[in-house]
Write a structure and sequence with these properties.
By secondary structure, the chain is mainly α. The chain folds into 2 domains: 98 residues, no CATH class; 153 residues, no CATH class. 75% of the residues lie in helices and 0% in strands. The protein contains 7 helices and no strands. α1 crosses α2 and α5 runs antiparallel to α6. The radius of gyration is 21 Å and the shape is flat.
Length: 258
């Protein structure tokens, strides 16, 4: 039994949240070149969360390989230290990139659309591996030689979650790709609205995945957390941040032309 077996899953997230906040205060208040501001705090929390979960995931695998992991002297204390270290590394890197990233209008003109294109391609990849297959499966269709879905014996909540997740991901992939293409040509209010729609649909895809997990009695726990489980959340957060920056850029450009 590992350290995380002694705690309920929500208690794990409370401990991780406390470690994240402590590391944010320590780094932003003491690191040279960093300032304790709301944007820096937001970037630190995003990067710190990714770093914390990545480090604790690998540390937990290391504990699982031990014959008696619970009796190891570093099992409990080491988990907390790994959380703090991962949060500090991920958060510091995120804030450093924010500070170093150029803020000129020309860099935003091309940097934001390129960022949109990268995110949209990630959504398209998920559409090909899950969205399309999930949509066909939820509609009761099959593709001979590739897959066969039989949802008749599954929970109704699972079927509903699959419908929400697959259809939302399909819409998110289409809207994001069109919005990115329009932004590359020229950022406009239309591209911003399309991107906003894609972001909303992608969060609905995540909500559908949560419904599917709950229908199968799968609860969030750090013990079984994999790095790849965080990819959708990272895509959604980055897409929202890019959309907010793109909206500000378009508004500033319209005011400058007026």
């Amino acid at each position: 039994m590992l350290f995380f077996d002694m705690l309920q899953s929500y208690e794990n997230f409370v401990i991780g949240g406390i470690a994240l906040l402590i590391s944010a205060v320590l780094v932003l208040a003491t690191a040279p070149g960093f300032r304790f501001t709301i944007p820096n705090l937001v970037f630190f929390l995003i990067g710190g969360c990714a770093g914390l979960l990545t480090c604790i995931s690998y540390y937990n695998r290391f504990l699982a390989d031990l014959p008696n992991p619970l009796s190891a002297p570093f099992a409990v204390g080491g988990s907390v230290l790994v959380m703090l270290l991962g949060a500090m590394l991920g958060g510091s890197l995120s804030v450093w990139l924010k500070v170093r990233f150029p803020k000129s209008a020309q860099s935003k003109r091309w940097g934001l659309p390129i960022g949109q294109l990268i995110i949209s391609l990630l959504m398209v990849q998920q559409f090909l591996t899950f969205g399309l297959l999930g949509t066909l499966g939820a509609l009761g269709m099959t593709v001979t030689g590739h897959f066969t879905f039989d949802l008749s014996g599954g929970p109704k909540l699972y079927e509903s979650g699959l419908l929400v997740a697959s259809f939302s991901l399909d819409l998110a992939a289409v809207l994001s790709l069109i919005g990115a293409a329009l932004s590359i040509v020229k950022p406009s209010k239309i591209s911003v609205r399309l991107w906003a729609g894609a972001v909303v649909c992608y969060w609905m895809f995540i909500a559908g995945g949560i419904l599917m997990s709950w229908s199968l009695q799968i609860r969030p726990t750090l013990r079984y957390l994999e790095v790849w489980d965080l990819v959708p959340y990272a895509i959604a957060i980055l897409a929202a941040l890019i959309g907010r920056s793109l909206c500000s850029y378009v508004e500033t450009s319209d005011l400058a032309r007026a």
